[in-house]
Write a structure and sequence with these properties.
It is built from 7 helices and 15 strands. It has 306 residues and is of the alpha/beta class. A 7-stranded mixed β-sheet has the order 5-2-1-6-7-8-9, sandwiched between helices. The N and C termini lie far apart (59 Å).
């Protein structure tokens, strides 16, 4: 089958690679080069780099406008496949391929429609994560679903780790759906259940509320790591928490109270403590939590959140 593929981040690469094994990829559509790092060097997207290594033609477009539509239409694709491209597919492009477009979405639709499904699911403490392949329609993530399945991720996995697991499992799921569409056997069914939304995360989403139960604090930390990052304030300084886990100790500290251990810090929550291993204070580099605390504890009354 002649496919046009649209995607931008690394999470889209496994699906591109899986589809290229059995189908003709007539074009890979991705976002333009973006400035990265301290020197703001223009860098191709992960998908653009992967497509180049695979010898596939690349169309770089910040949005799928008339020009992009014309270029794609000239290639006569039979199906469009999109995975985290970062832009909307509208008419007439939506109907340009014979079979329209399908989307791999990293949630069990209709749960977590939107830009940050994995992060929002982790923040909410969902027991199950999953992936869905659905027919793209004008409404956000609302099309009929061809296939969906739950995916097991480690209970301490942050958003990056969980997304990587889902990306690889979802690649196989998408390949199965594409094979079914090519064979004329694929069936899409309307979404059923309660709709929840997953808007893009902002900096404020990473703020930890130490009055919440330790499970809720840890769920938020998982969901916002690595971006925008879990953070708190100590002595007026913003501190990112890079690595932590619920403490095995039954010791109860007041919310935000900090107690140093030999190789970590305990920070009190609304229940038991969170054990913090690595931090990144503003204006400094990442470091062990105990090393950072030694330089802070001249004031023994410092608390997280203050």
């Amino acid at each position: 089958m002649r496919l046009v593929f649209a995607g931008t981040p690394a999470a889209a690469i496994p699906t591109l690679q899986a589809l290229a094994l059995s189908h003709e990829i007539v074009a890979v559509v991705t976002r333009p080069d973006a400035p990265l790092g301290r020197k703001r060097v223009l860098t191709p997207s992960p998908v653009a780099q992967a497509a180049g290594e695979m010898g596939l033609p690349v169309i770089k477009a910040s949005r799928l406008d008339d020009d992009a539509t014309s270029r794609i239409a000239a290639l006569r694709p039979e199906l469009g496949v999109i995975v985290a491209y970062g832009g909307l597919v509208r008419e007439p492009l939506l109907s340009t391929p014979v079979h329209g477009w399908i989307n791999l979405h990293f949630s069990l639709l209709p749960q977590w429609r939107g830009a940050a499904p994995v992060q929002r699911a982790l923040i909410a403490g969902d027991a199950e994560l999953g992936a869905s392949v659905f027919q793209l329609v004008p409404a956000l993530d609302a099309g009929d679903v061809f296939a969906a399945r739950t995916v097991t991720v480690p209970p301490d996995a942050n958003a990056d780790v969980a997304l990587d697991v889902l990306a690889h499992d979802g690649a196989g799921l998408t390949a199965e759906v594409v094979a079914g569409i090519a064979a004329g056997t694929a069936i899409a069914r309307p979404q059923e259940g309660q709709v929840t939304t997953a808007p893009k995360l902002v900096l404020e989403d990473g703020k930890l509320d130490w009055t919440k139960a330790v499970g809720e604090v840890f769920s938020r930390l998982r969901g916002v790591t690595p971006e925008p990052g879990a953070h708190t304030h100590v002595g007026g300084i913003r501190v990112k928490i890079l690595a932590a886990a619920p403490s095995d100790s039954d010791e109860v500290l007041a919310p935000g109270e900090i107690k140093p251990l030999k190789n970590s810090l305990l920070i009190g929550t609304g229940t038991t403590a969170l054990e913090v291993h690595r931090v990144h204070p503003a204006g400094k580099g990442p470091m062990n939590a105990t090393d950072w605390w030694r330089g802070m504890r001249e004031n023994e009354n410092l608390r997280a959140g203050a």
